[in-house]
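User: Can you recover a sequence for this backbone? Please restate the input before giving your answer.

Assistant: Of course. Working from this structure:
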């Protein structure tokens, strides 16, 4: 018995063109997908770098900055090297990040009377952010001069805040400061610039 020869059917020109188009589409799709993944990775890396180096984001814990900041608020800090009276700053203290308000800078003289009025260089501070003035937990002798390279900081909730009025924390060094609070981003109904 003789075997019949097998004939191979060649595809038509339309089928060849369709297969070429399908392969080219697959190649374009893979290239586009790879480019998109690389771009998103680069954007994410830059965002993390910017957030870490220039704009740290953190969540408030505690009540020492009420009514300005509440427990659970999410804020953005801006890394800066200069701070003035009234700035809200975040700083490291015993491996914790604390938030307080700058009251006085290096060389300034701070005085706090029994009613909680704060004087810097013999001038009464206008503190509309403080609702209940009090001397609070203070073991310093006033008037008190802020040492060079340090800042005197206090919480807005003067009754409960442990801050530079206590020798346990004292004045903070410039190197301890992470940055200045510039923006509250959460909760949404409280979004506001703070710096």
């Amino acid at each position: 018995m003789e075997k019949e020869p097998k004939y191979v059917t060649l595809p038509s020109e339309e089928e060849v063109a369709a297969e070429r188009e399908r392969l080219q589409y697959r190649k374009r799709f893979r290239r586009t997908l790879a480019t998109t993944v690389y771009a998103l990775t680069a954007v994410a890396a830059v965002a993390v770098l910017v957030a870490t180096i220039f704009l740290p984001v953190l969540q408030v814990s505690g009540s020492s900055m009420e009514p300005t900041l509440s427990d659970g608020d999410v804020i953005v800090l801006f890394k800066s090297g200069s701070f003035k009276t009234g700035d809200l700053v975040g700083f490291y203290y015993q491996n914790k990040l604390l938030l307080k308000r700058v009251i006085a800078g290096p060389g300034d003289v701070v005085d706090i009377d029994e009613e909680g009025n704060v004087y810097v260089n013999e001038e009464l501070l206008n503190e509309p952010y403080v609702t209940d003035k009090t001397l609070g937990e203070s073991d310093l002798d006033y008037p008190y001069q802020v040492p060079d390279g340090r800042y005197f900081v206090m919480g807005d909730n003067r009754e409960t805040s442990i801050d530079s009025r206590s020798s346990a924390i004292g004045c903070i060094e410039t190197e301890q400061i992470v940055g200045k609070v510039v923006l509250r981003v959460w909760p949404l109904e409280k979004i506001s610039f703070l710096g």
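That completes the design. The chain has a mean pLDDT of 83.
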